[in-house]
Every structure is written in C-alpha cells, then in structure tokens.
Design a protein that fits this description.
It is a single chain. By secondary structure, the chain is of the alpha+beta class. The protein contains 2 helices and 9 strands; from the N terminus they run E-E-H-E-E-E-E-E-E-E-H. Strands 1, 2, 3, 4, 5, 6, 7, 8 and 9 form a 9-stranded antiparallel beta sheet that branches. A hairpin with a 5-residue loop joins strand 6 and strand 7. The longest helix has 15 residues, at 150-164. The two termini are 18 Å apart. The model has no long low-confidence stretch (mean pLDDT 80).
Length: 167
C-alpha cells in the first residue's frame, strides 16, 4: 500500500504526532456507499496512558441511563443517556465482554451522535481509543448505518493496523 503524506509543517521520517486517514470498504453496509469509509486517527500512546479497565468501568457505572436495551440485531447493549449532550454520547453501545475486546483486553465501546429519536449519524470507538501493539493510540469513526457490521469493521481496523504498524 502506498501512502503520500502531506502536512502543513516539515515532514520528518519516522516521526508524527497524529496521523489521520480513511479506509474505504465498498463491501460493507450499502454497496459502494460513501458511508462505508472508516476514519482513523493514530497518535503515539503516552507512557502513562493505559486501558485502565477498572477505572473506566467505575466511570461508566456512575452514569445515569434513561434506558438500557439489548440489541440482538447488533449483538450490542444500547445505553441511552439521561442528558442529551449535543449529539455525542446520547447513545452508547457496549460489546459483550470478554467475548469481544480490544487487542490488549479492554472493552469495546462506541459513543454515537445524532438526533434523539432520529437516526444515528456516526459512532466513534470510545474511551479515548484503544492501544495497538501497546504503543499506538487508535480511534476510529464509522457511519451509524454501519453499526450492524461493527464486528467486521473492528476486526478489519485491528488487522490493517497490525499490518502497517512496525514494532
């Protein structure tokens, strides 16, 4: 795969603060739809950042939820926030754990945006991302209509990044 990086500043080989790119999977969701793009952000993981599972669980359990729905059609549990936060986080999805987890054992969580009562426009992998190979912080955003394919999308992102991130 060929990459052509561009920047507003000087490009230094082997060094970057943030990399943002998209992957297009024409076979997901609606065939060949522009909504089948996955927007990925990579950043170096700071040494003190970890996927502190217990801390995240504590914060999540402190939240108040208007309702909790088991979405068998998605294979996810859907949490509706009591407070509408201008879009982000009004619906949160959790994958069954430990059946599905991040590469280093964290929970899979998506925080979605859209209009309450309306459709979800997009979802981002939440909790500040996940660690890939214990050194790269990964966050990605997918179209709301592609949440039905979240398992395949997550696996494609992890596999792709495993192939391009060099130890």
């Amino acid at each position: 795969m060929q990459f052509e990086p561009s920047t507003l500043h000087k490009i230094v080989k082997g060094r970057a603060d943030t990399i943002r790119f998209g992957l297009f999977y024409p076979d997901l969701g609606e065939k060949n739809s522009s909504h089948n793009a996955i927007h990925i952000t990579l950043e170096p993981a700071s040494p003190e950042w970890t996927e502190n599972i217990a801390e995240r669980e504590e914060r999540f359990n402190a939240e108040e939820w208007q309702k909790v729905v088991q979405r068998d059609d998605l294979g996810l549990t859907e949490y509706h926030n009591v407070i509408y936060r201008g879009g982000w986080g009004y619906i949160t999805y959790f994958a069954p754990f430990p059946e599905y987890q991040t590469p280093i054992g964290g929970k899979i969580k998506y925080v979605c945006a859209g209009n309450p009562g309306g459709r979800i426009t997009h979802c981002r992998f939440a909790n500040g991302g996940y660690l890939q190979k214990n050194k790269v912080m990964v966050m990605y955003v997918i179209g709301g209509e592609n949440m039905k394919d979240w398992k395949e999308i997550h696996q494609k992102v992890v596999s792709f990044l495993d192939s391009v991130i060099v130890e």
